[in-house]
Structure formats: structure tokens, C-alpha cells
Design goal:
seven-stranded mixed β-sheet; 333 residues; 7 strands; 7 helices; alpha/beta; elongated
């Protein structure tokens, strides 16, 4: 399928291969949004490349970057992302994460969330990230923990080609970067109880299983988020993202805001298209006038030549008349 075969107005079908905002339920939305939100402080004012940008929602969640380019192998995903999330500093292009059309050392941060397991050779993506990064740049990626992830499923994920254990993932990143650090991520249902008026968040967190037993302990990582760089790694604080069932999560708000802008953006796009059409019509009209304008220019040039000749001849006549007048005055005639 070529780019031209894909309509920019088409909706993106949720198949399970990639996350699409508004589809798949709260769990997948929170998991995917949380990674981008956690990475947002790392990209402020920087040039960002997203390998495997999917439906493009990550561009809205990162925010604050200087420039963002998302690459995805699916033209329909790129068309959807461009329509929903594209902007002056935000672009999307068709490209394989193992080899994108991007200059060497052109990005400060490369993100790649839940893509490594979708290719047969994840190391190719890591090498590509290293190629694209500037000196001291950072690669931020994620992948499911093979054991923990499959423990939650009845059958393997048909889209996953290379799942890894924690140690394998860490070694993969270390094969291309000097500094590596992994953060665990897991999903859990939550209940929110506000503190005193004016408080902004929970002061404590209690973990328990569905049988109301096993209070305390830690969540087992279902996914690993890896930071890798040739230079020292910045701190990444632990965080929690709680989905608002009323639709007030950061992801929902970002998508809702972008959808509110759609009519205005569409109107501006149509206005630009119409202006381009008018400009093209004017150019065509000017081309149609070219022969006549050329003929008129030549006629003016010829008239100017004739006028100059007439002026020269008139000057000669005037000199002759003056000479005759002088002879008459002297009585020489």
C-alpha cells in the first residue's frame, strides 16, 4: 500500500498491533500514555525522533519539544497521525524503525515504546537509535517482560516476534550504549481518596490482590522502560497515572483538545488549498498572456528605435536649417 492509497480522513482500525486513542479500554490506554508522560520531562526543548510512532498520540503527550518526527511502517497510521496530531513542529513519515530516512546525529532523544518486540531483530532498532542520536543523546524505549507478560495471556501475542526477559533487554541496550538503566512498569486498578482540601495527590499507597489478601509488597513489572546513553543518565522519578473514568485523564484531555481544534485546522487547510489553487490559476493566466506581452514588448522596443531614429533625423534637419539661416543672415545666399 502506497501513501497515495491512504486517505488522510480515514479512521485507524484497532487490531491490537498498535494503540489507537479511544479504543482498547482503560488498561492499554494508561499503559501506553504513561510511558510518554514519564518521558516528557526528558524532551523539553529538544529534537525528538519516535521510532514506531503508531497513531501519533505520543506527540501530544510529550509536548514541549523543539521538533518531533514520528516514523511508522504503516502508511495508514502515518496518515491518521498527521491528521490528528501533525503541526508546525510535529511531523510523521513512513519508515521502518530499523532504518529510517533521518540524518546521522540529528536528534537529542529517540523514543521507541513497545516496538522492539515487533521486529525479528530488535538490535537493529537500537543501532538505528544510536546512529540518529547526537553525542550525549538518550534512547528511551520499552518492551514487555516475556515471562510476566505471557503469564497474563491465554495465548501469545501474534504481533510479537522477539519478546525478552529483563536481562536480555538490558544486555541489548548495553550492546550500543555505555549507560543503561531500567524502570519497571505495571498496571493495577486503583481507588482514589482525596486528602485535605487543597492536596494534590495521595500521601500513601497500599497494594493488595483481588482476594483482599497480601497487603503491602511491590508490583511485579509487566513491562520494562529503558534509558540508554553514552553519557550519564538523568533521574526519572517514579510516577502513577490514574485513568479518570469520566474521561479526564491527560490522554483523554489531549485527544479531546486536538479534536476540538480539528474544524479550525481543517478550515485552515482548505483555505490554504484554495489559495494554492488561485495562485496556480494566476500563474496559468500569466502564461497565457506571455505571447501577447512579448509581442507588445517587442512593439514598444521597435517604436523606441523608430523614435530614436526620428529624433536623430530631426536633429540633423535642425542643424541644416540653422546653417542655412546663418548664411541668409550673412547675405551669402
Amino acid at each position: 500500500m502506497s501513501d497515495s492509497d491512504v486517505s488522510a480522513d480515514a479512521e485507524l482500525e484497532f487490531t491490537g498491533e498498535r494503540f489507537v486513542p479511544g479504543a482498547g479500554g482503560a488498561e492499554i490506554a494508561v499503559e501506553h500514555a504513561h510511558r510518554y508522560l514519564a518521558a516528557a520531562p526528558l524532551v523539553q526543548g529538544k529534537d525528538v525522533v519516535d521510532l514506531g510512532s503508531g497513531s501519533g498520540y505520543g506527540a501530544a503527550l510529550l509536548a514541549g519539544y523543539r521538533a518531533y518526527t514520528g516514523y511508522d511502517i504503516a502508511p495508514e497510521a502515518v496518515a491518521f497521525a498527521t491528521r490528528r496530531f501533525g503541526g508546525t513542529a510535529t511531523s510523521f513519515e513512513v519508515g521502518d524503525a530499523t532504518g529510517v530516512d533521518c540524518a546521522d546525529a540529528s536528534a537529542d532523544v529517540v523514543v521507541c515504546f513497545e516496538v522492539l518486540e515487533h521486529v525479528e531483530d530488535p538490535a537493529a532498532i537500537v543501532r538505528e537509535a544510536r546512529r540518529v542520536l547526537r553525542p550525549g543523546g538518550m534512547f528511551v524505549s520499552s518492551t514487555p517482560d516475556r515471562t510476566a507478560y505471557n503469564r497474563t495471556r491465554d495465548e501469545p501475542n501474534e504481533f510479537h516476534l522477539a519478546e525478552m526477559e529483563r536481562d536480555e533487554y538490558e544486555q541489548l541496550l548495553a550492546s550500543s550504549f555505555a549507560h543503561v538503566r531500567l524502570h519497571g512498569q505495571a498496571y493495577a486498578s486503583a481507588s482514589w481518596l482525596t486528602g485535605e482540601t487543597g492536596s494534590t495527590g495521595p500521601e500513601s499507597m497500599v497494594l493488595m490482590d483481588a482476594g483482599m489478601e497480601g497487603l503491602g509488597g511491590e508490583l511485579s513489572a509487566l513491562y520494562w522502560v529503558g534509558l540508554a546513553s553514552e553519557g550519564p543518565l538523568p533521574p526519572l522519578s517514579g510516577s502513577a497515572l490514574i485513568a479518570d473514568s469520566a474521561g479526564g485523564s491527560e490522554l483523554s484531555r489531549a485527544v479531546a483538545q486536538l479534536r476540538e481544534w480539528e474544524p479550525e485546522l481543517e478550515a485552515r487547510r482548505l483555505a490554504l488549498e484554495q489559495a494554492a489553487i488561485r495562485e496556480d490559476q494566476a500563474r496559468t493566466q500569466l502564461k497565457g498572456w506571455e505571447p501577447e506581452l512579448k509581442a507588445r514588448r517587442l512593439a514598444l522596443e521597435q517604436a523606441a528605435i523608430r523614435e530614436e531614429r526620428a529624433r536623430t533625423q530631426l536633429a540633423a534637419y535642425e542643424r541644416t536649417i540653422q546653417a542655412l539661416q546663418e548664411r541668409l543672415d550673412r547675405g551669402a545666399v
